[in-house]
Amino acid sequence: MPQLNLKPSHKAIRDYYATLQQYDRHAVTHEGAVSNPFAFLLDACAKQVNATLIPQYAMRTSNGNRIVIDGAILDEYGLPFAYWEAKDIDDDLPKAVAEKQAAGYPFDNICFQTPERVILYQNGQVALDIDITEPTGLIAALQYLFAYVPPALDNWQTAVSDFRAHVPDLANRLKELIDQRHETDTAFKEAFADFYETCRTSINPELSQDAVEEMLIQHILTERIFRTVFERSDFTRRNIIAREIENVSDALMRHAVSRDAFLAPLDRFYIVIEQAATLCRDFTQKQHFLNTFYEKFFQGFSEDVADTHGIVYTPQPIVDFMVKSVEHILKTEFDRSLSDTGVHVIDPFVGTGNFIVRLMQDIQGTALEEKYRHELHCNEVMLLPYYIASLNIEQEFFQRTGTYLPFEGIALADTFELLEQEQGELFTRENTERVQRQKAADMFVVIGNPPYNMGQINENDNNKNRKYETMDALLKETYSQDSKATNKNALSDPYVKAILWASKRIGNEGVVAFV
Predict the structure, then answer these.
(1) What is the Rg, in whole angstroms, of the alpha carbon atoms belonging to the chain?
(2) Helix axes 11-25, 135-147, angle to 10 degrees
(3) Cβ contacts of 28 within 8 Å, gap of 6 or more
(4) pTM over 0.85
């Protein structure tokens, strides 16, 4: 992480003291006002080191109580490394510190501040207790706060770059093992052949064997993460797709010493991920952490996959805005809401599940189970995000209700491929049933972040996107026919296809929200 560079002459420092002097002239001393200048200063410092200050940061303590801290500073991966609590001049600061400690606030790196004083705790001990009425003391406090990096976070930041270097090597070893088993192990060969045929039926008839082997490799490399970060030891048993892939994985590994022994070269990275995940105090933070891992994994594992599918994690403020906008339009234009019975919602390119999770947070508690069981739908064509979305959505329901209920609205399927008329069983009987229910539903809201990668249309590009007979014909009959442009290649972009698909899916009325 970059070092903080602060001097008394810097604008952020001068502005901090100038604002406090203005407040003092007006006899303004209450916490709500005097905390603002320090918040602006923290924000400026955070930007210097590629971090982000999140005001009013909600989290859960180790005993499960919900608290809201005045500020948390998150690194570029969304992991918190510093906290801030503000008090006014008249507060007894040591007493306030003791109360927060008893309430379970994080004391690994937290700054308690009044306009006159900072008490900084690191690793549960007082690291600094200093007067900040002069710039020298203020700068010292800030430098102490930003210089501290929790060991788990320090290891994580180092390991991310190492991971990109090591994962391809281990993936290649797995590929070699798969090739060897194809030649020597009849049981594996049969298990893989069944799995491959199922994938072709479910996802894409033109799916290559290499692509399915890549799915198997992804599963083997990441299964431990889902078990440990989410504390879901039953994941491969409960998830209908993971269960099928685990059977093939078992067949692959049955002559190896053990899966753990084979993956031993990645032990250091697995341990680092698990340690970094302990910095996530509640499930929302774990979701963000896992989304970050997802992006980093694909950068290390297969840039081709990331490129072809336009993998981009949607920032949470954009997700929030879109969900609130959909709710507003439903109310103002249709006199309905997301909580109403009959308002079916689909994210056709669900990724890691952010949109469905955020929608669930706005659905009334009395309506949530019915919506969750019958009226929330989503598809994902790639295995790893499908896993993450399943976990995220199921955990959100558990957080809201205290009950675990498998989310049956998600399907491992290619949304555009579902337009084709001839389809067999889609992966498993359960997955097929989910797709059939989805097709029969009268969709009213389509929301999400479609793939967009016009650059992949180039015929010389090894990662060019596949064609869809029905979707492409529909495009020619509508957008292409109506377009006056000479070069219509851009209309083949998946993003354009997604808009056409969504407009057809809602029929005569409804809402489409894409970013």
Answers:
(1) 26
(2) 120
(3) 34
(4) no
Closest by CA to 501, choosing from 463, 448, 455, 465, is: 448
DSSP reduced 3-state for 400: helix
Asked if residue 189 lies in contact with residue 182, where contact means CB atoms within 8 angstroms, the answer is yes
CATH fold of the domain at 314-514: Rossmann fold (3.40.50)
Distance CA 294, CA 301 (A): 10
How many Å apart are CA 493 and CA 500, to the nearest integer?
11
Instruction: Domain 11-149: give its CATH architecture.
Output: Alpha-Beta Complex (3.90)
Q: Which residue has the tokens 């097709």?
A: 439
Q: Write the DSSP assignment of 8-42 as a string of letters.
A: TTSHHHHHHHHHHHHHHHTT---HHHHHHHHHHHH
Give the closest residue to 120 by CA, choosing from 83, 65, 89.
83
What would the two tokens of residue 142 be? 């800030």
Condensed to tens digits (0 to 9), the pLDDT of residues 292-336 reads: 776 666 555 655 554 444 445 687 889 999 999 999 999 999 999
Rounded Cα distance between 148 and 134, Å, is 22
pLDDT in tens, 156-173: 667 666 666 677 787 888
- Chain segment 177-229, per-residue pLDDT in tens: 899 999 999 999 999 998 888 777 767 677 788 888 888 888 888 777 777 77
Query: Can you spell out the DSSP letters for 416-476?
Result: TGGGSS-----SSHHHHHHHHHHHHS-EEEEEE-----GGGG-TT-TTPPPP-HHHHHHHI
**Whole-number Cα distances in Å, 394 to 19, 90, 350, 405:** 47, 46, 14, 7
Could you give the residue range(s) of every CATH 3.90.1570 domain in the chain? 11-149
For residue 448, report the phi and psi dihedrals to the nearest 5 degrees.
Answer: 155, -170
Residue corresponding to tokens 């994902």: 380
473 to 201, 203, 248, 274, 491: CA distances (angstroms): 21, 20, 37, 48, 12
**CATH code 3.40.50 region(s) in the chain:** 314-514
End-to-end CA distance of the chain: 31
Q: Please, which residues have CB within 8 angstroms of residue 17's CB and are 6 or more apart in sequence?
A: 135
Neighbours of 25 (CB within 10 A): 8
